[in-house]
Write a structure and sequence with these properties.
By secondary structure, the chain is an alpha/beta fold. The protein has 7 helices and 12 strands. Helix 1 packs parallel to helix 7. It is globular, with a radius of gyration of 17 Å.
Length: 242
């Protein structure tokens, strides 16, 4: 998967260059045609379907299939899985035929590599972050996952690995251990996504609860506003060649 907004080294590179960096937007936990259409019409790049039964955003593969067909040719679809076994993986791949996979559990690098090989799809691996020490865990997945997604670490004892509406200190993603490409999630909404991008220079932002009127119930107006704010011009500094 090509790195969104990735810069290649210039002939005579300068240490930094101020530029407008394109960002990808993923609307996650989608369960209705209305939200797929709002995401497409507003310029989102991905819609995500959550195949984890404990989530309020869960959707069964049979119910996700017509939404994936609606999205086909207009926007990429992401299947979000939490420590899936081979049976669930097979059912989801055969029924939904997503564009990409997102692994949001405690999958080891070896399991991520096996799922990537079995599916033939690009894989996003989520890493829960509370402090900058957690960011370093991404190194084990570089070269295996196609993108790392940094999400707020779930509260202790929670059955859900994401979708809590919690944020972490975005400054943790400023260090050299982050690597590219990377996505940002956790506590994002239309009012803070611009600042989040200005702080982290993430390649992609991923939102779920921040565009909902109730758990699992997306608001098309919030979806549109989130995409508009995420895609708004930002003069950002990114190291050339990063």
């Amino acid at each position: 998967m090509a790195a969104p907004g990735h810069f290649k080294g210039a002939l005579h590179p300068q240490p930094w260059k101020v530029c407008q960096v394109p960002v990808k937007v993923k609307i996650c936990g989608v369960r209705t045609r209305e939200i797929v259409e709002a995401a497409v019409d507003s310029g989102a790049d991905y819609v995500g379907f959550v195949f984890f039964s404990k989530s309020p955003r869960y959707i069964a593969p049979d119910a996700a299939r017509p939404l994936a067909e609606l999205a086909l040719g207009s926007i990429e679809t992401v299947a979000v899985l939490v420590d899936p076994d081979d049976a669930l993986l097979h059912e989801m791949l055969a029924t939904v035929r997503p564009s990409l996979l997102q692994l949001h559990g405690s999958e080891t690098p070896e399991r991520v590599a096996a799922i990537r090989a079995r599916s033939g799809l690009c894989v996003i691996k989520a890493i829960g972050v509370a402090t900058s020490d957690d960011v370093a865990k991404a190194a084990a997945y570089r070269g295996i996952a196609d993108m790392i997604l940094f999400d707020a670490k779930a509260p202790a004892g929670s059955d859900l690995t994401g979708g809590h509406g919690l944020a972490f200190d975005w400054r943790a993603l400023r260090g050299p251990l982050v690597g590219r490409p990377f996505a940002l999630s956790g506590g994002l909404d239309p009012d803070n996504v611009w600042d989040a991008l200005a702080t982290t220079d993430a390649d992609m932002v991923d939102v779920s609860s921040g565009v909902e009127r109730a758990p699992g119930e997306k608001d098309p107006g919030l979806v549109r506003r989130f995409i508009q704010m995420a895609k708004a011009p930002r003069p950002l500094k990114r190291a050339i060649g990063s």
